[in-house]
Amino acid sequence: xxxxxxxxxxxxxxxxxxxxxxxxxxxxxxxxxxxxxxxxxxxxxxxxxxxxxxxxxxxxxxxxxxxxxxxxxxxxxxxxxxxxxxxxxxxxxxxxxxxxxxxxxxxxxxxxxxxxxxxxxxxxxxxxxxxxxxxxxxxxxxxxxxxxxxxxxxxxxxxxxxxxxxxxxxxxxxxxxxxxxxxxxxxxxxxxxxxxxxxxxxxxxxxxxxxxxxxxxxxxxxxxxxxxxxxxxxxxx
Length: 237
Known about the structure:
This protein is of the alpha/beta class and 237 residues long.
């Protein structure tokens, strides 16, 4: 690890799982740093380890070897309760499936991270977050009453509401049509820019990846390419 100020730092991270056929190497010696506020696209074929790498960074999966540091904390030194607290403080996650609680309204879903953190103004902040993603008028609706695109915008509002330093997004438009997906992505990047949150975005879409400052290509559990786009090109996209 070269930069002690990096928000995320991985040093020779590997993950091997057992199977009936023997050990399966999912991640193979990945070293990586992500700076605060940096936007990074993670590309690669299915089965290359993209989602697993994201889970390792979030502390939801423990590596077999190597070291993961997030916001100055060595994840290997934390138990599950401490990892959960660290995620609440520093990490927002948006999945392909929306993962909204069906018995809660949009407002209640967005307020969850703040309520868990003991914030006194949880519902006021959640209402403001829904307004920013264009869903203030839908705050009292339940997930079943919302379209797929609306549900994902609620998920984005929830992911950003507590002001995370890192936003992890795993194929956030995978279940949406093109036009709806574009609206969702615009909401995601608008919130990222407003808060200057670091973003790690898994995508199969090269055009979407171009919107990020940096692109990582993963293959067979290894980073095979790491490149940055010219700033002028990023602004034009």
